[in-house]
Amino acid sequence: GSQNICAVAGLHSAAQWFLQNQDEIRATEEKNHLRLLEILQRYDFVKIAGPADRFSQKTKCIGVVSTVFDGYSAEDIGNVFDEAEIAVRTGLQCSPLAHKFLGTFPAGTVRFSVGYFTGEEDFCALEKAMEYIEENR
Q1: Which architecture characterizes domain 23-135 according to CATH?
Q2: Strands (E), the chain
Q3: For the chain, N or C: smaller number of CB within 10 Å?
Q4: pLDDT tens digits for range 21-40
Q5: Where are the domains of the chain?
Q6: pTM across the whole model
């Protein structure tokens, strides 16, 4: 059969873009990760699963943050975010052993992720959803 030339060309273009912009991409991802953490830490009912030093700018973490919302199941919180058109992963996320290690088994967590293309409108939507949760506790 024929090679998928369109996919190969697209992958080549994406790889070139990444290599030419990787410093900017990394800086933006780090900024967005810290912004996500800053928003989540405003709420005393949100616990972040993972290392305590995630709030340090020196920590090299990717933009994935797992949380536990006190008094709520991961699925219930996931439904609130779904209504707000915010995509999150809930539950054990295919890694029950990691959740046993973190102490979040069997309930799991609500997992957020941000990246280079996460924009101000995304953070505004998150803040609005978090305010809704806080007001309806």
Answers
A1: Alpha-Beta Complex (3.90)
A2: 46-49, 64-69, 89-91, 109-113
A3: N
A4: 999 999 999 999 999 999 99
A5: 23-135
A6: 0.85
